[in-house]
Amino acid sequence: MVFHNLVRNLTTVHTPYWDYPPTASVDWCEVNYEYTPYLAEFFNSLSSLALAFAGIFGILLHPWAETRFKTAFGATIAVGLGSVAFHGTLSKFTQAADEIPMLYSALAFAYITLVQKYNFKHSTRTFLAIALVSHAALTTYLVTAFEGKWQFILFHISFGTAQIFAVYQMFTIYRTHKVAFRDTECTRIFENGFKFYGFAFVWWIIDFTGCDYVNPFYSKAILPFNPQFHAWWHVFISIGLYNMGLFGLYDRMNQRLSGKEPKLKYFLNFVPYIVLQDIKIEKINYNTFEQ
């Protein structure tokens, strides 16, 4: 892979509204300002809203969820909005607004999985939270202080390891408790989430490493049109993240509400969410959930 500041400068006839050439450390495989002068990457910008909606559904459909889950879903909303800004402008500032929440979201889900898997006591949970926040602060500095290929490399090492760790921990929870879940729909939620994560990763790799072959802008292209793999990455990772987060929430409630197994329902017959059977939500003692 050749790092030429990772910026392709694929600009069409529209005069860019935002500063050009891009100041971000990376430019993706979409022709810039092709449809409007106000969005550098049209499809990548619009598809980023899927991440914001994943976080919104996570919070609004589960108002009784613990703070840790609301924090993780809230970070996902920030990722989506930051991604819209980043792909719309390709500036260094908006790139940070996209990437930093990505890291925070991964660390939030890592915290959730560790606490659920090992059932830490309060003092250990506090230490873990401080350690993760310190790691987030250090990484925030690194990815904003560096530019070009080193910024790109440092961010993806930091984010990638945190994300892989969180997904692996979620997988071990799934594998350990699969037999205990009588609701096979819930295990299917994790499996679907895991599959969409995999699809998303494949599309990201193709878009990043094979742009010369999938974008007709280049003479090497083997396709007559750009399939917008990075935009599909946004959609698939949103579905995967939401479903795996939902599985984590189900597992947590299954732990806390012995004998009252959570159930799955579908908002608009499409978006899965969790309901607590035989429990009046307004009478739940929220403080007990924070244990």
UniProtKB/TrEMBL annotation:
InterPro entries membership: ACER (IPR008901)
One term under GO cellular component: endoplasmic reticulum membrane
List of residues binding Ca(2+): 27-28, 30, 32, 41
Endpoints of the signal sequence: none
GO molecular function: hydrolase activity, acting on carbon-nitrogen (but not peptide) bonds, in linear amides; metal ion binding
UniProt subcellular location: Membrane
Keyword tags: Calcium, Hydrolase, Membrane, Metal-binding, Transmembrane, Transmembrane helix, Zinc
Bilayer-crossing regions: 42-61, 73-90, 102-120, 127-146, 152-174, 194-211, 231-250
Entry annotated with the keyword Cytoplasm: no
Family: Belongs to the alkaline ceramidase family.
Designated name of the protein: Alkaline ceramidase 3
UniProt organism field: Boothiomyces macroporosus
